[in-house]
Amino acid sequence: MTRSRLYLFDTTLRDGAQTTGVDFSLPDKRAIAHLLDDLGIDYIEGGYPGANPLDTEFFSADNGLRARFTAFGMTKRAGRSAANDPGVAGLLDARADAVCFVAKSWDHQVRLALGIGLDDNLESIRDSVAAAAARGREVLLDCEHFFDGYKANPAYALACARAAFEAGARWVVLCDTNGGTLPHEVERIVGEVAQAIPGDNLGIHAHNDTEQAVANSLAALRAGVRQIQGTLNGLGERCGNANLTSLIPTLLLKPAYADRFEIGVTTEKLQTLTRVSRQLDELLNRTPDHHAPYVGSSAFATKAGIHASAVVKDPATYEHVPPESVGNRRKLLVSDQAGRSNILAELERLGVGVDRDDPRLGRLLGALKDKEAQGYAYEGADASFFLLAKRILGTVPEFFFVERFSVNVERRWNARGELASYSEAIVKVKVGEEDLISAAEGNGPVNALDTALRKDLGKYQSYIEDLKLVDYKVRIFQGGTDAVTRVLIEFQDAAGERWTTVGVSANIIDASFQALTDSITYKLLKAGADSMSVLPGPTARSARL
Ligand SMILES: CC(=O)SCCNC(=O)CCNC(=O)[C@H](O)C(C)(C)COP(=O)(O)OP(=O)(O)OC[C@H]1O[C@@H](n2cnc3c(N)ncnc32)[C@H](O)[C@@H]1OP(=O)(O)O
Ligand SMILES: CC(=O)C(=O)O
């Protein structure tokens, strides 16, 4: 079967810039444009030249993109020609391959928001599109509020779309601006519009206010459009736009679409999608959505023991596509929902070999569930799970023993007359036969304790010099006076490896202490320091099970 070409239009840098909390810098915009270009997106809407200095500068030079670089802006104002409209001039002077005008197509909005006559708006559309086409630009028209407008006055909404098409627009894009239209409505309306304007010239721009933007885009595709607009990670005004990070794999991996349509993204490039999604979050300093379809860290994570036992027999039992196809990975989580299959899979990933029939496996599962009942959470604390398993298997030596620690927090007026808080910690550690005492100040009690703990570990000190604490999370649960605190601490070493440990106590400092000592022990084991240890352990003192 011959497949139709479907074009992807990315508006991360334009509609995505309208996301609450998103503020692109120029280097961000350049980096994201190149990510999209490399992925194989056909059109990259870079912003609105003339609306702000950053966008104007972005469009002042050749950005060296393969994709069609697109400038966005509104049609000319009524009462003047496109040639005399400074906004239109800014768009036509921009270094862009394509110009995407936005025009209202709902009669009520034309009268109310623009305060002009319906024919004036049609004239603005025609004149603006023709002016851009005459300057050799590929022209798109975003018909704002198309679906709401069509429901209120189909003849006028269609007249706006036709005006653009007849004036030379390559694409007439039907926008669900308020995001309230449902898939069955989109499919019906697009089907009717496609009787008047060829589907090869129609696009869809869907907002996600009812969580239907992806479904609406697919509905429009089925009804005839051949361009889909969207954003990476679903960024966009209010609840966002159609999420290209979900649409692209659906279009490539689901036969209902893959057999009918060809897109610019290849199946090889699809394998970079998870990385691209995370890079965008990294650039914007946003926490990735763990539950994002296809690319989230939980998208292929199986927690339930019954599911895990089937997944190890055949991953397709609980996966709709292979995680590698989108550059993601399978995870079998260890938690109180786990069975032996989860544990065996995680141990294998961590390089710990145990036989399925080993009786210690049952002990480990029991210990895991007991600890989780006390408040520990191992699904996000791989290093603590590793230590728990190794302790049950009897292979964690006692590198060091903390005889006592104290932490002091003081809030007082200093010599400069400022109110300041001070934290200091003292730790007494035994390393082999050596007694070591370290003291440290910190910008808080946990920082002081961490610094004191890692200041002098005697013969093991060189192994932990490169440790860096990169994340610290606290969760207090059960509420009230018997609240329990769970601390998760993430460390990184010079080799770039990251690991997380967990501690639980009624006392936040004690919970932190457990997570800190687990991290140090994990690092010493990983670095092979056990070959130097004196005691083969676990001893009564260090055993914590
Ligand atoms: C559905 C969408 O996402 S459309 C994209 C919206 N994106 C943005 O608005 C981001 C960038 N916008 C901006 O920086 C500013 O709004 C600017 C520079 C474009 C305009 O700023 P200002 O001139 O101060 O106008 P302001 O933003 O207050 O109002 C918009 C004006 O454009 C007019 N307008 C809106 N759409 C159109 C259109 N398609 N064609 C012609 N005029 C339009 C409005 O009627 C209003 O005019 P008025 O001030 O005479 O009432
Ligand atoms: C153009 C646009 O962003 C919209 O109508 O939603």
TrEMBL record:
PANTHER family: (R)-CITRAMALATE SYNTHASE, ALPHA-IPM SYNTHASE/HOMOCITRATE SYNTHASE. SMART domains: LeuA_dimer. It catalyses: pyruvate + acetyl-CoA + H2O = (3R)-citramalate + CoA + H(+). Pathway: Amino-acid biosynthesis; L-isoleucine biosynthesis; 2-oxobutanoate from pyruvate: step 1/3. Belongs to the alpha-IPM synthase/homocitrate synthase family. Keywords: Acyltransferase, Amino-acid biosynthesis, Branched-chain amino acid biosynthesis, Isoleucine biosynthesis, Transferase. Its EC number is 2.3.3.21. It is an enzyme of class 2 (transferase). GO terms for molecular function: 2-isopropylmalate synthase activity. This is Citramalate synthase. Coiled coil: none annotated. InterPro entries: 2-isopropylmalate_synth_dimer (IPR013709), AIPM/Hcit_synth_CS (IPR002034), Aldolase_TIM (IPR013785), Citramal_synthase (IPR005675), LeuA/HCS_post-cat (IPR054691), LeuA_allosteric_dom_sf (IPR036230), PYR_CT (IPR000891). Residues 6-271 form the Pyruvate carboxyltransferase domain.
